[in-house]
Amino acid sequence: MGNDFMGIRWPLNQSPLQLTSLSYPEQQDVNVKSLSRVKPYDLENQKYFDRWARDYDNGRISEWFQYTQQLAIGEFDLKRDAKVLDVGCGTGHAVLRLASLLSEGKAFGIDISTGMVAKASANVPDALRQRIEFVQASSDCIPYTENQFDHVLCTNSFHHYPRSIDSLREIRRVLKPGGQIVILENAPDLSWYTRAWDWFLKLTEKGHIRYYTSAELGELLREAGFARARLCHLRNEFLCHGKLYASIQVWTGYAPDPK
Ligand SMILES: C[S@@+](CC[C@H](N)C(=O)[O-])C[C@H]1O[C@@H](n2cnc3c(N)ncnc32)[C@H](O)[C@@H]1O
User: Fold this and answer.
1) Is 11 a domain residue?
2) Ligand 1: does its nearest atom lie under 6 Å from the Cβ of 157?
3) CB-ligand 1 contact for 115 (6 Å cutoff)
4) pTM, two decimal places
5) Which of 157, 163, 184 gets mutated to test ligand 1 (max ligand atoms within 8 A of its CB)?
6) Which domain holds residue 83?
7) Would residue 222 count as lying in a domain?
8) DSSP-derived secondary structure letter, 82
C-alpha cells in the first residue's frame, strides 16, 4: 500500500543506502519502549517502513487511512476503562483516537518500524500521555502477556505480515477471553483493480505480502481460533478522502470465552 497510485502516492522505493543513514531522535520519548522484539527476518521490512515513516502523515493517503481507522473503531463497543491494542499502528492516529474515547482505559500501539513509533509518540498530546504506550514490535511476537486486552485493532497492515496466521494467533493470545479483534483490509474479491494492484505491489514493494479475499480472511480468523467471525463491511469506495477508488473489508471476531 506504500506506492499508492489511486491514493496519489508515488514513487517511493528507496535504496538501502539511504535507509541505513536514517536516525530518529524522537525515539527517546518516554512513550516508546524498544523491546527489540523484531526478528532478523523482519529487518528488511522494518527498514522499508522506517523510510516511509518520514512522510507518512503528509498527503492525502493519511486522510484515507484515518477514515478507515474510524470505520474500524466504530465496530468496537468500547467501555471507558478498556485496554485496546493497535497492531501495525503506523504513526498512531487510531491509538490517539482510542485513548480519547477511553477516559479510564489505555491505548497501546505496536509497529515493526522504529520510525513509525517514533512519529506516533511525537504525535501524542500531553493530555493523553499517561494513557498511551507505543512499542516497536512485530505482529507475530507481541510483547505482552496473555489475556491483556479487551480489543485489538489492525488496519491497513495485515497484508504486510509474512506469517499472517502466527500474527492472528498472537492477537488471540493477548486478548482476554471474549475480547474482540477488528481487522480492516483491502478486498481483492471486489475488483480487478485491487487484484492487479496486489500483483503489482508483490513485484515492487518490499513490505507487501498479499491481499486476502474476504473468504480467505474469514477462514484465517477461524483457523487462528477466533469465534463468531463476522464480515462487518465489504464495499467499494469512490472519490473518498483522497482516494479515487478503494475496496475495503472489515472483519471482527472474538477470543473464545469458556464461560
Ligand atoms: C499502511 S501502514 C498502516 C498503519 C495504520 N494502521 C493505518 O491504518 O494507517 C502499515 C503499517 O504496518 C506496519 N507493519 C508492517 N509489518 C508489520 C509487522 N509484521 N508487525 C507490525 N507492524 C507491521 C508498518 O510499519 C506500517 O506502519
Assistant:
1) no
2) yes
3) no
4) 0.88
5) 157
6) 16-254
7) yes
8) -
